[in-house]
C-alpha cells in the first residue's frame, strides 16, 4: 500500500534504514544531521533495533564494526568533521570486509567550517579518507525521495559486497522537506548468509574478523580479494541520470543538490532552444566513467558544477581523457551556486570556441 | 588421586610469539581455563587489542574480532548489544585501554555494558619496542623515558581501575598479578568471577592484571616477577577495588 | 607419584618453573631444544609431589601433570 508523507531528507534516511532491516545504529550529535540521530533514538528501539549515542564519532564507527562483525545490519551517520573522525574505522571495516552503511550529511569545511551544505568531501568519500587501498560504494541522492531509495539500496549493496556504503547527502538535502512515497508492505532486502560472522563457534571452526595478516603474503592476498570485489562492484553498480542528453552538444555535470539547481537552468535554456543536457552521477563510486567517455565522443563541452573548488571535475576529466573540453564552476564554504551563476557559466561554455582536440 | 594439570582445550596447540617469561602467556592459559570450566567456548567472542596480544585469536579456539588500537570496548559494545546471549570479553594492554582507548573504556564502563575486560598492565608498550605506557612508574626507564619517567614532564602512572570503580555502571573492579603462583591462581579466580558477572547480566567487570615484560623491563622473568611484587604493587595495590 | 611431562621443544627457558618449584626439583637441561635454548627438565621424577606450581607459572603451557 503506497504511503506519501512530508519529511526531511534526514528523516527519510532514518525511515528507509529501519525499513531496510537496520538492527544497530550508533551516532553522535553534529549539525546538520541531528534529526537523523534523533529519529533513530525515537524509532529504532521500538522497531526491533538498538540505538546508542556514542562518546564520539570514532567510537560509533567502531561500534558498528562490532555489530556488523556479529552479522547485524548496521548504520552510523555524521557530518563532515565527524566523518573525518571515522576514517580509520572505515579503513578497518573495509580491510575486514564488513558490511556497513555510513551517512555523511556534508557541511562546509575545512576545519569546523559551518553548518551550511557543501560537497567538499567528495575526495574523502570516493578516493578513501583512510589509509590503504579501499573503496566505499558512494551514493549521491538529489532529493528526499532519492535519499530514501538510496539508503535502502545501500543496505542491499553492503551485504551483497561485504562493503561500506556511504550515502553522501548534504545540509540542504538533509534539512529540506519534500514529499516521500514508499510501499508500506515492502519487506527489507532479503537477508544474506553470513557464515563469517562472530556468533560463537558452535559446530564450526572459530571465525576471526580482522584486517591484520602477520604472515608476509597474506595482506597482499587480502588486498587482491578486495580489488576483485571492487572490480565486480564497478562493473555492476554504476548509476547515473541524464536529462536532455540525447541531442545535447554540451553537458552540465553535477550531483546531489547542485544537480537540482543545474537542472532548472538546463530546462530554461532548452526552452530557449539551446542544446544543453544534464548528466547526474548517482554513484560517485563506482564513477560513471564509461558513460562519460562514450558521451565525450559526441558531446564536446562539459561544465562541471560543484559545491567545492573542483573535486568530481577531476574524475570527469579522467573519464573524458581529453576528447572534450571540461570546464568547472564551483562555490564552497557554504556558498551555493545560484541559477544565474550556473546559467552564466553555461552560456560562456556554449559560446567558447572549440580548440582542436586529439582523437 | 592427585590433581591433574592439563592444557586447557580452548588454548590452541601452537607456540606463542610472546617473549620468554611474558605474563601474556600465563593469562592466555588462565582465560582458556576459565572458558573451559564455564563451558562457554562456543558462545564466547573475544575482542583482541592492538599490542602484543593482537594475535590472541591464534591462541584461543573461539570467535574473535580484531579492533583498531584503543577501540576494543566500542567493538565489544556493538558485538554484545546485538547478541546479548553471547559472552563478549576484551583482552587489552595498558596502551590500548588507558591511553588511546581511554574514552572508549570510560564510556563503555559508564554505560554499564555487560562486558568482561581482561586488562593486562605491564607498564610499557611491548609490541612497538618498550615505550612509556600510561602505567609506566615514576623513574621507570623506557624507550621514550630514557632517563626515567618524570612527573613534571610525563605526569603520573594512570590508576584507570580506581577511576572506573567510581562509575555506577561498573559492577566489579579487581587488580591482581601473575607474579607468583598464589597471584596467578587469584587472577584465575578473578577472571572467572568477571566472566560469571557477565553470564549473570550484572554489567561491566574489569580485572587489571600486573604482568611481567622481561624484555622491556630489562630483567629476567623471575626478577620481573619480583619487581611487580616489590615495586609495582606499591603504586598499583592489589585487591578488589569494587 | 605424580607424572610430570615437559614439552622440551616448546620451552623458552624462562625458568619461572625452576624458581617456583618448592622442592627445587627442576633445572635447565644441558642440550639445546629446537628453539636453541636450554629447556627445563625434572631432576628427580620421584621427588615431584605434583603440586603444580610449575604448571601455574609456565607462560607457554609446556608442562602437564597427570595426577
Automatic annotation (TrEMBL), chain A:
It comes from the Bacteria. This is 3-methyl-2-oxobutanoate dehydrogenase subunit VorB. Residues 15-196 form the Pyruvate flavodoxin/ferredoxin oxidoreductase pyrimidine binding domain. InterPro entries: 2-oxoacid_oxidoreductase, PFOR_II, Pyrv_Fd/Flavodoxin_OxRdtase_N, THDP-binding, Transketo_C/PFOR_II. Pfam families: PFOR_II (PF17147), POR_N (PF01855). Transmembrane segments: none annotated. Keywords: Oxidoreductase. Residues 248-341 form the Pyruvate:ferredoxin oxidoreductase core domain. Gene3D superfamilies: 3.40.50.920, 3.40.50.970. The keyword Nucleotidyltransferase does not apply. The keyword Oxidoreductase applies. GO terms for molecular function: oxidoreductase activity.
Automatic annotation (TrEMBL), chain B:
Keywords: Oxidoreductase. Residues 65-209 form the Thiamine pyrophosphate enzyme TPP-binding domain. It comes from the Bacteria. GO terms for biological process: cellular respiration; small molecule metabolic process. One of its GO terms (molecular function) is thiamine pyrophosphate binding. The keyword Oxidoreductase applies. InterPro entries: 2-oxoacid:Fd_oxidoreductase, THDP-binding, TPP_enzyme_TPP-bd. This is 2-oxoglutarate oxidoreductase.
